[in-house]
Amino acid sequence: IVNDCSTDNTERIIKSYQDRRIRYLKTEENCGSDSKPKNIGIKEARGEYVAFLDDDDIYRQDALKVLLKYMEHSGADVVYGDYLIEEKGKIKPGWSIDFSPSLLQKMNYIAMSVAMAKRECLLEVGGFDEAVPKFKDWNLWLRLQKRGYRFLHIPIIVTEVYPQEKSI
Fold first, then answer.
1. Are the beta carbons of 75 and 150 closer than 8 angstroms?
2. For residues 115 and 133, what is the distance between their CA atoms, to the nearest angstrom?
3. From the CB of residue 142, how many other CB atoms can be counted at a distance below 10 Å?
4. How far is it, in rounded angstroms, from Cα 73 to Cα 52?
5. How many CB atoms lie within 10 A of CB 58?
6. Alpha-carbon span 154 to 74, nearest angstrom
7. What sign does the CA torsion over 42, 45, 46, 47 have?
8. How far apart are CA 88 and CA 95, in angstroms?
9. Along the 168 residues of the chain, how does pLDDT read in single tens digits?
10. 93 and 160 in contact (C-beta within 8 Å)?
C-alpha cells in the first residue's frame, strides 16, 4: 500500500493489520499525481501480479481471488472485470466491454480498480508515464496492448467506484 501523504488515518489503519503480505510505504511529500505512487508500488511489489485500488473505490468480496483465478488459467497478461458506480445515492453499471484493440484506440473502457496485470509486463513498459497529466491508465493499457500483451475481460463485478468531487 502506497500512501501519498494522505491526511486521514491510513497509516494507523494499515499498521493495525497483522499480515506480513501487506507492505506499507509512504511518500516523503505528496506527489501531486497518482502515477508516481503507483510506480513505487509496482517497483516495490514482491508478487507476480499487481492490482490497483484507489482510496475512493472498494473491492467486492473475493475480487482479487476472481481476478487471480482468471489470470492464472487464461494465459492473459492483464485481466479486468466490471464495476458499479455509486453517485449521489444512485448505483449504475460501469463499462462492461470485451477487449478490442481497435476500440481501445478510441476510448478507455478499462477502469484501474478492476484490473490485475503481470508485474513483469508493467515493468517492461516502464509503468505509468509520469509526464502524462490525464488518462494515465489509458496510456498504460495502450502501451501494454502495443507490446502485444494479452487482455481478458471477465464479466463479473469486482469493484464499486465512488467518484468524489475532485476525482480524476
1. yes
2. 21
3. 16
4. 21
5. 14
6. 11
7. negative
8. 19
9. 898 888 888 889 888 988 888 889 999 898 888 899 999 999 999 999 999 998 889 999 999 999 999 999 999 999 999 999 998 889 999 989 999 999 999 999 999 999 999 999 999 999 999 999 999 999 999 999 999 999 999 999 999 998 766 655
10. no
Q: For residue 138, what is the DSSP state?
A: H
The DSSP bridge partners found for residue 3 are: 26
* Direct distance between the N- and C-terminal alpha carbons of the chain, in angstroms, rounded to an integer: 20
**Which pLDDT score is estimated for 55?**
81
pLDDT score recorded for residue 5: 87
Q: Is the dihedral of CA 152, 113, 42, 16 positive or negative?
A: negative
Instruction: Count CB-CB contacts under 10 A for residue 134.
Output: 9
Other residues' Cβ atoms within 10 Å of the Cβ of residue 67: 26
